[in-house]
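REQUEST ID: PR-0412
SUBMITTED BY: lab tech R.K.
PRIORITY: routine
TASK: structure prediction, single protein chain
INPUT:
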Amino acid sequence: MGVKGENISVTVTRRWSSGHFGDPSLIGVWRMFPTVRVSFTELDPNARYCVLMDIVAVDSKRYRYAYHRSSWLVAGKADPPLPARLHLHPDSPFTGDHLMKQTVSFEKVKLTNNMLDKNGHIILNSMHKYQPRVHLVRKTESTKLPITSLDGLDVTTYVFPETVFIAVTAYQNQLITKLKIDSNPFAKGFRDSSRLTEFDRETMESLLHNHSYARSPLRAFSEAEFEEAIKNRDSKGA
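STATUS: complete
OUTPUT:
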């Protein structure tokens, strides 16, 4: 599903729809999940643009997860605000023509709850509610990279309420844990093999069949294999 602004749309996948109540993880340093992806239209094809994202607090409250209600509740006042940081998309600057032909993914954004972080990661307070913002900066000769402040720049900012989340250091909702496993291409071992596509299943079965170490000692032999084993045993005994 795409949510459109003046000249931008954000990809609000079922991942965001399912996780609207939050859960991007802050285990030390972690990539943001779900990922924000945006696309642009109606840009000057010959101009150059930088795309940035920051994450700002939605309110001045701290939250807790009530397991018996499966919902978030206000737990008190927010912790002191943390230094604001901008994430410049690594492919910036784009030409307008190039930017309008692709979807820009912020999959490399990293979050942390380490207030002393010196690696440029976005710092968040756990159990606080946040709103990602996307900034489109029209680059000029005087625009210096990397961009650390939007002051004085030709910038348009976009906010999509669908992407509001509560930052956590451990997932509070089992559905989010399952969602991340289902969405992680490296987590196939956690998923039921019955959910594999026919291509994946055939490929896996082929690998198991051809791999000399793949046979389980508890796997039943076929009749032909059993007879072959008996013949080998008898020939060795002779």
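NOTES: The first strand starts at residue 2 and ends at 4.
REVIEWED BY: pending
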